[in-house]
Amino acid sequence: MVDATTYNQMKNNPNWWSASLAYSRYNHTSAVETINTLPDTSAVENNGNTIKFQAGAGSGTDEGGIDDLTTAEIAVATAKGWTVSIS
Q1: pLDDT in tens, the chain (87 residues)
Q2: How many CB atoms lie within 10 A of CB 26?
Q3: Whole-angstrom Cα distance, residue 49 to residue 64?
Q4: Which residues of the chain form beta strands (DSSP E)?
Q5: What's the angle, vertex CA 33, arms to CA 29 and CA 39, rounded to 5?
Q6: Which of 69, 77, 70 minimizes the C-alpha distance to 39?
Q7: Which residues contact 41 (CB under 8 A, 6 or more apart)?
Q8: Is the entire prediction scored with pTM above 0.70?
Q9: How far apart are CA 30 and CA 62, in angstroms?
Q10: Inter-residue contact 29 to 70 (CB < 8 Å)
């Protein structure tokens, strides 16, 4: 089981990974990068594009969890024609 101590000891090792959702390498920073690289589909009416994020992912990391996405960060996706779902 991964805890904060293990995470802090191992986080800089590129070969380390965790099966724990809270210590996932895919976290707030990764989610923002993903949103920033989404294609702009806003010109397509009723495109139905949804990007789904797993709630709690990365919550124990230094970069923060996906639940920490701000309204402004989500608005970037919305402006590109995407719906953001965190569940």
Answers
A1: 788 888 889 889 999 888 899 999 999 999 999 999 999 999 988 888 999 999 999 999 999 999 999 999 999 999 999 999 999
A2: 17
A3: 25
A4: 50-53, 83-86
A5: 155
A6: 77
A7: 47, 49, 80, 81, 82
A8: yes
A9: 12
A10: no
